[in-house]
Amino acid sequence: MHNNKLDLIEFHIVEHCNLNCKSCMHFSPLADKSFIKISDFKRDVKKMAEITKGNVETINILGGEPLLHPSVLKLLKTARYYFKNSEIRLVSNGILVPTQKELFWKTLKSLNIHLSITKYPLDINYQKISYLTQKYGIKYTFYAPSKENSQWYFPLDVDGKQDPAKSFENCRKGNNCTNINIFRGKLYMCPVVSYVRYFNKFFNKNLPVEESDYLSLKNIKDIQEIFDFISKPTPFCRFCNISARTYDNKWERSKLDIAEWT
Q: Which helix (H) or strand (E) holds 94?
């Protein structure tokens, strides 16, 4: 059914951000300042390469804002070493891109890294970014076609009264292999589950993540286990208010109000 190939795996290397969007589904405005250790990243990337035999179409390296990581180039080298044939995309908000040194651009070129920039209504020199990518021969895309980037609102039902099966059936991230998240040795179906701990901590809530909400990488024997896992709802699906989701909201910065996520 899947031809034994995953479409997309996402590795989050930084949990905080320098933009802090309202309703961020990665909860970055609420996150502690945190960078993944090179050793932990290598462990997870290596394990996923073993499980998938390298059969992954695209690897996303993101955050938070990944360019905040002081060792981002080393992490990209690690990802390319283990996934030689996958498209590897560095997903950034673009704020720090124009100020990157020549080593950054030469490394992206040598590793064949695709620079993917999400456009926001900010004063960013996108023309300079385009110039630099062309100068160094870097593959790049702007995620949004214009500066007026729409903002998603993915509300949580803190009481957990949603039907998990219906939530899963109607979720654009459910039952597909286009948004698998790897974090600290675990595989999640979506970033909401892997990062809800920041929502819990900031707003003093307790939306539990159970063992059946993820797979431990060390216990996965083959890629079929991943396909089986993403083909059915997990207990956490009861906290997702799918029917209230909206996708065309005006972009704003977060005010750290719980209403942004509920």
A: none
Between 42 and 246, the higher pLDDT residue: 42
In sequence order, what DSSP letters do the residues of 188-256 get, joined into one string?
ESSHHHHHHHHHHHHHT------GGGEEEGGG--SHHHHHHHHTS--GGGGGB-GGG-EEEEEP-B---
Query: How far apart, in whole angstroms, are the C-alpha atoms of residue 247 and residue 245?
Result: 7
Label residue 108 exposed, middle or buried (CB < 10 Å: 0-12, 13-18, 19+): buried
Which backbone phi and psi does 84 adopt, to 5 degrees?
Answer: -70, -30
Give the count of alpha carbons within 13 A of 83, CB side only. 32
199 Cβ neighbours under 8 A, 6+ residues apart: 27, 30, 156, 205, 207, 261
Residue 45 to residue 11: CA distance in whole angstroms: 8
The Cα 261–Cα 248 span in angstroms is 16
In the chain, count of helices (H) and strands (E)? 7, 10
DSSP state of 99: G
How is residue 68 written in tokens? 């905040």
Kindly report the pTM of this predicted structure: 0.93
pLDDT in tens, 97-143: 999 999 999 999 999 999 999 888 888 998 999 999 999 999 999 87
Cβ neighbours, 10 Å, residue 23: 21
